[in-house]
């Protein structure tokens, strides 16, 4: 065994693992449209794959839980198939997962999130669950820390959903998610209030995704490659491993 993957373990194996496990990694994704060229489970699958890879890096100190495979996706609801949780529902699910695992002796948790729309809810969840359950809660966006590789390879000014970054990550981690024959550039609307509401503006607000892009994509998925995905994913895993080792005071010489 090179990763404690809770979904594949017996209770005896879990009991044994708890002698060294300090951290539960909870993958958090979404079920939402990803344009004409990626399956709707994209974020859930990528979060799970990243969690397993991180669990390998942090073995035997981390255990990976089942993925939360739906998230806060209200902004994608006008595309067929999207399923959106209310933020309060996501927080409640996470709280119950943390509460259960705390009963088994785990006190530190990482929400490993692949979906931008979940981030502000996870910030609140971290605050609420820390306070209510007296545990340590961290959260991270799966590959956001891979700044060097993203700066080098991702050329679109607007990216982050079904774009060359996400297509690349999927080609590396779960190629079955990608319809390689159907890859499209984001069909971005030239006008509309979405431009006034983007992060970085003085005033922000909610808008639906179709206000920004007609095919549900941004960036240019056609530029995605498995090699770019590998660079981004591996850089992010190194950063996550290093920071978590410090936060958890792990014996890092055992990790490499
Ligand atoms: Zn996605």
Description:
With 256 residues, the chain is an alpha/beta fold. It has a single domain, classed as Rossmann fold (3-Layer(aba) Sandwich), CATH 3.40.50.10310. The protein is 37% helix and 9% strand. The chain has seven helices and five strands; from the N terminus they run βαβαβαβαβααα. It has helices at 11-17, 42-57, 87-103, 119-133, 147-153, 164-173, 226-248, and strands spanning 4-5, 23-28, 62-64, 108-113, 136-141. A five-stranded parallel β-sheet has the order 1-3-2-4-5. α2 (42-57) links the parallel β2 and β3. α5 (147-153) packs antiparallel against α7 (226-248). It is globular and about 55 Å long. The model has no long low-confidence stretch (mean pLDDT 96). Zinc ion binds at residues 34, 42-43, 115, 161, 166.
Portion in beta strands: 5-15%
Name the hetero compounds present: zinc ion
Query: Ranges with pLDDT <50 over ≥5 residues?
Result: none
Structural class determined from secondary elements: alpha/beta
Major sheet size, sense and barrel closure: 5 strands, parallel
CATH superfamily, by name, is Creatininase
Over the alpha carbons, how many angstroms does the gyration radius reach?
A: 18 Å
- Based on Cα principal axes, name the global outline: globular
Number of domains: 1
Mean of all residue-level pLDDT scores: 96
- List how many beta strands DSSP finds: 5
CATH architecture: 3-Layer(aba) Sandwich
Count of runs of 4 or more consecutive helical residues: 7
Q: Tell me the helix content.
A: 25-40%
N-C termini distance: 16 Å
The side-by-side strand order for the widest beta sheet comes to: 1-3-2-4-5
CATH topology: Rossmann fold
């Amino acid at each position: 065994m090179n990763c404690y993957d809770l979904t594949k373990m017996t209770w005896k194996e879990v009991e044994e693992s708890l002698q060294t496990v300090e951290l539960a990694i909870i993958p958090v994704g979404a079920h939402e449209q990803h344009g004409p060229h990626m399956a709707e489970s994209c974020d859930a699958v990528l979060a799970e794959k990243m969690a397993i890879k991180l669990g390998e890096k942090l073995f035997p100190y981390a255990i990976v839980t089942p993925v939360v495979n739906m998230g806060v996706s209200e902004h994608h609801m006008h595309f067929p198939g999207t399923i959106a949780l209310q933020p309060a529902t996501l927080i409640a699910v996470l709280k119950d997962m943390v509460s259960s695992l705390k009963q088994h002796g785990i006190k530190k948790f990482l929400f490993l999130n692949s979906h931008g729309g979940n981030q502000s809810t996870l910030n609140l969840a971290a605050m609420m669950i820390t306070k209510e359950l007296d545990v340590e809660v961290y959260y991270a966006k799966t590959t956001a820390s891979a700044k060097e590789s993203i700066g080098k390879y991702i050329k679109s000014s607007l990216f982050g959903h079904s774009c060359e970054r996400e297509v690349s990550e999927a080609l590396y981690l779960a190629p079955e998610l990608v319809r390689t024959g159907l890859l499209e550039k984001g069909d971005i609307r030239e006008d509309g209030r979405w431009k006034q509401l983007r992060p970085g503006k003085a005033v922000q607000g909610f808008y639906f995704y179709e206000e920004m892009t007609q095919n549900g994509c941004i960036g240019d998925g056609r530029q995605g490659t498995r090699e770019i995905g590998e660079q981004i994913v591996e850089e992010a895993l190194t950063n996550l491993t290093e920071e978590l080792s410090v936060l958890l005071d792990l014996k890092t010489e055992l990790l490499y």
